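The records we work with from here on pair a chain with its fold. A complete example follows; check for yourself that the lines match position by position.
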Amino acid sequence: MTTPTVDTTQELAAFLRARRERLDPRDLGLPSRRQARRTPGLRREEVAELAGVSVDYIVRLEQGRGLRPSADVVEALARALRLAPVERAYLFNLTQQRPRNADKPATSAAPPLAGLVADLSPLPAMLMNHRYDILAWNHEMTRVLLDFDTLPPAQRNAMWLCLMHPEIREFYVDRERVVREAIAHLRAAWATHPEDRALTDRIAEFIARDEEFARLWAERDIKVNGRGHKAMRHPDVGVIAVDFEVLIPLEDPEQRLVIFRPADEESQSALDRLCAR
């Protein structure tokens, strides 16, 4: 038996009906009615009022009549139906729209992820958002790179450090490749979050202050670095080569967990000596 492909129009209709019918009007502060409800949940009229659309529009959506709601309407429906984050994402996927507020990045580490970063010791690990802001780190990462606690928050950004910090600028053995790939990754994040003003301002700062960044940004390379290799010249123990992995948690998709693993025995030995100090 073959599995049928998804008919997004019909699935959208069924999903909206199911989520409407599971809601208790009393939980939404709606006035009680003397007449008993013949169907569970909210009436279409109530959903329409909560979402700011017409009743006819809700009827046509629930009948699968080929409508494609705008991102604003999808957001309004998600609020009206009290959808959980994963359900909201499902609704946006069904309508082939992108959430308007997808570009509100985390500015602090989710506590479970901050705990995970610490628990990953002795592997160097840190947590970033899509802007490359560094939100959490463990002891080993401070020994490999630098002590982020000594930096003002505005400078706790991996791209800023690579471009502006006098020590980190000369840190990578293959600096141009590292910078090129980081900029290509940042351009992809910028396109995904077009309304993130802070990110746009940060990129403008880099273009104005760093000729290398301006040149590479203009090339419009796109790359998402989920895995790779870096070699670093550490002033205390020499070259450390690492393989890195970038993981995106399902519960916090705007945060990125970065883990370094020594790429060879010499690098493992260097890391052991470094962290033992």
Notes: The first strand starts at residue 125 and ends at 129.
